[in-house]
């Protein structure tokens, strides 16, 4: 019995020794690792900050599930140590939730011991994506949607460049059910939406933008190697369940997509170039500075296709409306080419109607299959020689600084952060869609001090041309502060509505509207109309003319006539000349000559 007790005591002592040795080694290992991290200040590594979307003292990710530490949004050091501890202990599922962080830590802490376990969801994700190439995608502006008049950007991840439609799209957008564009713009300005990354089939995005919203798409293939592509894919996985506050003007779709590229290639410095505003078009241009764009492709919308058939392919349009709307038979007097074009147009128009919920699915399919059968009776294949428009990459930048000399010996200095108005060269921008924020105009008249002449909070003008089949309403809104015809300072609101006719190069518009001026207890208001025309027919030259008449209260009438010309001197430099006859000014005729610089 005594011998048995001795054996047990000996075993207990050895067991305790083993436990103590294990604890000592573990503590010693942890201590050495912590010392190494402190000595190297790994938590100050710029790439660790990129992985956490860290700028100006905090992460721009707002959901708590993106961090291991409770204070991880604000403390890079604490988040790093909590991540290392979780990896060693196998807690918080860090190995599977944040694969790129883990990969980076392994590279920078070679002796890091990790509790290994399987990550089936991650493995399945990587296999299904099978990423081989990355493309920045730019759907152009939507002319009648204020929230979409800047355009949009997202990323396409392809496994085979020859079959892009079966690729995956990585999109960042505001999570909302609001359908009113003005409400969306208002809430988006003040960060009232959660912005989330999502991954979905690319063909779904094509359907959304090309077919439903009738927006052209530009695709810019990026020059990333496989290691960089892998980083982007892993970081996309890390972000898929997180959100950040969405700000329409700055931290929007384009801004947050740039984070993915910075993480993919650590040497890139993209997001820091957008401190005040992030315009989708500018976010693409910044990629040029790093020679990231290796190829460009244009994908026209179904609307552009229909307008091409209508304006370029069909010679005899006499029977087209009856054929489309009344389902009458093709007239025998039509040429074979016109019969084919009639059918091609009707097929595309039927798809357009279905996208706008004008037909139920069963009725649509019945009509669609009937048209396809009729089209198949003609053996000639349809070709659409649709000219690729001006590449937005080479358009002028979105901010503008202008200086004018006026013939009444006055000077004007104006500045605006965005975007494109009726006077700007429209190459690369959507023709007829004009939107400005925070346009500031300072005026210096002879023998007077400089003064604030105008401040535009928001100005939108949507001049969408009508034709045989498409009847969009043109409209505008102008809100800001203005000196009313050199008389006094007023708050101004100008709503207007009308119609536009023409094509992309030339159009005429007729608008009805009202000028509302308010100052303390004094109000001025008018009912009036404007007729104008714009042509972009000539290379590097834009010409415009307009006449407006307003009948105000207080026995005021105003006739205003203007002719303008803008000449592009360089991509970001333009000369603007305007002749204005305004019968409410002391000197009716004014010639303005100015230079605009875009940046």
Describe it for me?
- The strands form 3 sheets. The protein has a 15-stranded mixed β-sheet that branches. Strands 8-6-5-4-3-7-9 form a 7-stranded antiparallel β-sheet.
- It is built from 15 helices and 24 strands.
- A hairpin with a 6-residue loop joins strand 13 and strand 14.
- 32% of the residues lie in helices and 32% in strands.
- About 2% of the residues have low confidence.
- The N and C termini lie far apart (93 Å).
- Helix 12 runs antiparallel to helix 14 and helix 14 runs antiparallel to helix 15.
- It has 599 residues and is of the alpha+beta class.
Kindly list the characteristics that best describe this protein.
alpha+beta, 599 residues, 32% helix, single chain, 15-stranded mixed β-sheet, globular, 7-stranded antiparallel β-sheet
